[in-house]
Amino acid sequence: MKTADFDYSLPDEKIASHPLKDRQSSKLMVLHREDSSILDRKFYQLPELLCPSDLLVFNNTKVIPSRIYGKKKSGAETEILLLERLVGNIWKCLAKKPKEGVAIEFEEGVTGKLHSSGDGEWTIEFSVDLNSYLNRFGKMPLPPYIKREAEEADKVTYQTVYAERDGAVAAPTAGLHFTPGLIEEIEKRGVETGYVTLHVGLGTFLPVRGENVVDHVMHSEYIEVPERTAALVNKATKEGRRVIAVGTTVVRTLESSVDETGLLKETSGRTGLFITPGFEFKIVDALITNFHLPCSTLLMLVSAFAGREFIFRAYGYALRGDYRFLSYGDAMFIC
């Protein structure tokens, strides 16, 4: 399987740089796998597309404002992107032109020192715990295809309304369309809801660089499936009810946590699951997702779920129409 098989031309003007004022007003493309039909809807019409027997599973990770700015001793300004807290005040990070032992001074006298982990990755050790500091001075880590500086408003809009577990450096974007009122309406219809956690890292969004898909190695990310969600999923599966994943991160979390008997198990750990066409889905029956970058692992996942030909036909339809792509863009419901 070639990486080029998942390439397509994405004009800059199709990439949403800002969210809509009303989250649930985004467009929703409905893909029916049974007859390969495509329908245009609005996201606030999602409840009409659900059955009272459905189970909706969300990712409750919370994006941390992990982009911070400081100065080196030379006075040169620099930028640090925090990727993951390792232990104490030590974080895995990305830095511009990093050097071993370089000290950086941040706002209010907070300092950090860069260290190489020896495998091309870097860490930074801070003088204090960063929790309150990040809330005050950190910027949201918008993906690079959003070609603007993060604004204060992004701390709200680049976050799902149900986010509660700090740890992500990118939003689980399928969930950005939900409002509290929409979730309430869905639950009033009898649809069950459950939550898992996958702390989204940069690796989720990185394009596959190699010529062959099989040569790509996914970055591992922290996942958690609580006992209640495992029980909900297993009951729904046993009763033949649909398990609907809100986002590719939920798909990877659920499909990474199946035991040898086919049951979803309570889980706390990491996953590096890379889903490509040919993958056998054991848990997920339907998927809500955004439109993804060319040659990305996410595009490969949705192609595995719905079929590459169907997905590329849908993407072509979206590109010819007025659909908005990527994190702040529109959504699709693959059922």
Report on the architecture of this protein.
Helices cover 20% and strands 27% of the residues. 38% of the residues are buried. It is built from 8 helices and 17 strands. Strands 2-1-17-16-14-3-12-13-15 form a 9-stranded mixed sheet, with helices on one face. The protein has a 6-stranded antiparallel β-barrel with strand order 5-6-7-10-9-8. It folds into 2 domains: 3-63 and 154-334, 3-Layer(aba) Sandwich (QueA-like), CATH 3.40.1780; 67-137, QueA-like (Thrombin, subunit H), CATH 2.40.10. The chain has helices at 46-49, 131-137, 154-157, 180-188, 227-238, 248-255, 297-306, 308-320, and strands spanning 27-32, 37-42, 55-59, 61-63, 67-72, 77-87, 90-95, 103-105, 111-116, 122-126, 165-168, 192-198, 221-225, 243-246, 267-271, 286-290, 331-334. The protein is of the alpha/beta class and 335 residues long. Strand 5 and strand 6 (77-87) form a beta hairpin. The protein is globular and about 65 Å long.
